[in-house]
Structures are given as C-alpha cells and as structure tokens.
TrEMBL record:
<keyword id="KW-0862">Zinc</keyword>
<dbReference type="InterPro" id="IPR017945">
    <property type="entry name" value="DHBP_synth_RibB-like_a/b_dom"/>
</dbReference>
<protein>
    <recommendedName>
        <fullName>GTP cyclohydrolase-2</fullName>
        <ecNumber>3.5.4.25</ecNumber>
    </recommendedName>
</protein>
<feature type="binding site">
    <location>
        <position position="225"/>
    </location>
    <ligand>
        <name>Zn(2+)</name>
    </ligand>
</feature>
<feature type="binding site">
    <location>
        <position position="236"/>
    </location>
    <ligand>
        <name>Zn(2+)</name>
    </ligand>
</feature>
<feature type="binding site">
    <location>
        <position position="325"/>
    </location>
    <ligand>
        <name>GTP</name>
    </ligand>
</feature>
<comment type="similarity">
    <text>In the C-terminal section; belongs to the GTP cyclohydrolase II family.</text>
</comment>
<dbReference type="GO" id="GO:0008270">
    <property type="term" value="F:zinc ion binding"/>
</dbReference>
<feature type="domain" description="GTP cyclohydrolase II">
    <location>
        <begin position="174"/>
        <end position="339"/>
    </location>
</feature>
<dbReference type="GO" id="GO:0005829">
    <property type="term" value="C:cytosol"/>
</dbReference>
<comment type="pathway">
    <text>Cofactor biosynthesis; riboflavin biosynthesis; 5-amino-6-(D-ribitylamino)uracil from GTP: step 1/4.</text>
</comment>
<dbReference type="GO" id="GO:0009231">
    <property type="term" value="P:riboflavin biosynthetic process"/>
</dbReference>
<dbReference type="InterPro" id="IPR032677">
    <property type="entry name" value="GTP_cyclohydro_II"/>
</dbReference>
<feature type="active site" description="Nucleophile">
    <location>
        <position position="299"/>
    </location>
</feature>
<dbReference type="Pfam" id="PF00925">
    <property type="entry name" value="GTP_cyclohydro2"/>
</dbReference>
<keyword id="KW-0686">Riboflavin biosynthesis</keyword>
<keyword id="KW-0378">Hydrolase</keyword>
Amino acid sequence: MQQVERAIFDLRRGLPVVVGEDADGAGSSVMVYPVESIADTNLAEVLETAGSSPALTLTRHRMEAMGLGLNTDAASLPLKGGDGLSAESLYCAAAAVKGGRSDLFEEPRPASLAERAALALMRRALLVPAALTARIDGSRQAAVERAVEEGRILRVPARLAERCFESGVGMLRRVSEADVPLSQSVRSRFVLFREPDGLREHVAVLIGDANEWSREVPVRIHSSCLTGDLFGSLRCDCGEQLQNAVQAIAELGGGVLLYLAQEGRGIGLANKLRAYELQDAGLDTVEADRVLGFGDDNRRYRVAVDILADLSIDRVRLLTNNPSKVRALSEGGVEVAAREGLYGRVTPQNRRYLKAKASRSGHLLDEVLGK
Ligand SMILES: Nc1nc2c(ncn2[C@@H]2O[C@H](COP(=O)(O)OP(=O)(O)OP(=O)(O)O)[C@@H](O)[C@H]2O)c(=O)[nH]1
Ligand SMILES: [Zn+2]
C-alpha cells in the first residue's frame, strides 16, 4: 500500500499520479490530476504527457447534481476542448452549485477501473472527488515509464488504490498516552491510535477510573469538528455536544469518549467549508455534500469498533442521536445495551442544520426540535 499512501500525498500537493490497471500498475494506465488544484497550464501538460484527450471523472452523486443520471458509481465526461475550457470551468463542473457548462463535454460514459480508483484516492486525500483523467497513449508510454522509474511521477495499481479505505481494518496502532485532567473530569487519560497508513489519528479519552466503569460502559463517538469543537461555531451543535458528553460520561461513573478524525462527516475541513458556501446558497447540509460529489454521510465507524476492542469494551451505553452509530457498533460485534440522547442548544443559526439531520439522516432530535 505504500505507493498508494505516497500517491495520496502527491495528489494533496496538486501533483498528478499514474493509475495502472494491471496488478503491478503498468499496462493500460491513466494520468490523474486532482481537479481542485489544476491550473490552466496543467491542461496543456495533460495533453502533452498523456497524448490522449482527457476526461473529467466524477462520482454518481455529482453527476446527479448536474442532472446527468448514469447508472454507475462513477462516470467520465470526455472534454470537447475549444473555447471556455479552463481550470476554472473544470472546477465549476466538479463542484459549483450550478454544475458548470455542459457544452464543454461529450456524453458521459461509465468510468474505467483506473478512473474509479482515481476518485477513491481523491476522497481518501480529502479533496473534491473529481479527477482529470487521460489514458496514456502508446506513443507516450516509454516516456511515462521513464518518469516512473526516475521517481518523477508515482504509479499505483488501480486495484490497490480502489481499496485505500479498507487498508487499515483491524490494524490500528496504539501509539502513545498520557493523563490529561479535564475541567469536567480531572481523572482523564488520552490514548492516541494511528491508522496504519499514517493518514489519520484518533483519540480515546478515558474518563474516570476504568475499574469503576459500569459493565455497560458509557461511550460517546464524536466526529471532529474544528469549527464547532474549538471555536464554538453556531452553525452546528458539535462543541456543546462534546462538552456535554464529557460531563454526562463523568456523571455516569466514567467511560470513553472516542474523538475520531472524521471532520465534516468524513469529507474533511476543506470540503466542509465548500459545503457551507453551498448551504449559504440555499442547499441543506445533505444536499451540499451531494453536490460536491459525496454520499449522505461518508463516515465509517470501523475505527471505533477497533478502538473499543483494544480497550476490551464489548458492551456499551451509547450517547448519540445518530442511529447509524448504533448500527455500526452492533454490526461490529459491540453490544449497544442502551442509547442515550445527547444534545447541544438549538440556535437560530443551527436550527436548519439540525432539522436537516433529523429529516434527511434520521437523527433522533424530537426532544430538542419538537415533532
Ligand atoms: N459535511 C458536513 N459536515 C458537517 C456539517 N456540520 C457539521 N458537520 C460535521 O458533522 C459531524 C458531526 O459529528 P457528530 O456530532 O459526532 O455526529 P452526528 O452524526 O451529529 O451524531 P450524534 O452522535 O447524534 O452527535 C462532525 O464531523 C462535523 O464536522 C455540514 O454542514 N456539512
Ligand atoms: Zn460541528
């Protein structure tokens, strides 16, 4: 997987990578550029390097947002070229609320294996899930091969890249820990876990004395929210939920708060801010993520299951309003003996967000929003 991790870093830096369809990554290969960082000059470079016409590869959700239904998980829109084609027009087609100019593209076709893998890499890299892709023409293969051998560009096998979200299952590493007294619970210990690819770190906050925890350990699974947790943003309820969770767990005799690196429901802070802009243009929190090409909720809770296993916890009292967290733990073999609601204050700024969570994602919020 090392190549895949390196490719993710390159893509985050705005560099292209080569995705190949054979097991060793060679064979039918595609150059991949992250759309969000492509500059006008790169467009000429893509044509020159790959020697074939590029396409814009998008997720099904983005295609739907553009009114281009195609019954596949991902599709590619071959570029027509000509006037109006620029880095900006590509970005608009990939992420703007209005979907960009359709006259710049040919009819969509289902994405190839390498193109689908390119989108998986974008999502893992927390970029806008849109790639400029170009098959490497036979006439350019030798040059690309040389660039790969000389380390000027990375090549990854599509099959590995496509599975970049699964690479770490069951392989979290417990890295370091220390006591960190909190104002609401003086006896608290932070334990840090790192995913094997080194890309994400998660923290388990052990509250109180583990020997005194009840058999149904009070557990909160909290997805990180820089704006809410640290700055008290009024757009969401995360900051207050975080504080209330520590308080509630302490009052229940201690337990665990899992602070998971899942900013913006797993789409990352950059995309969350993009989604906020789309919300300010009228979309709700779920629609905005879809328009950016994501699903309704991009979080997977496997890391929570793995951390609880490491802590030898198999029965919990879960503090959440989110039924998918309950489901994910149960499916992962953790018994959810009870669920308890956990709320922040409803404010004029977050009411619409909370209502959308209740109506679109099934959050159990009647207690604070009314029926
Ligand atoms: N994409 C996106 N993410 C958001 C938005 N507002 C808040 N978030 C993120 O949503 C997540 C909320 O996490 P949690 O509070 O753990 O989960 P939850 O699904 O609300 O469920 P609860 O357990 O009931 O709180 C955080 O990662 C926030 O950064 C938004 O408008 N768009
Ligand atoms: Zn938040």
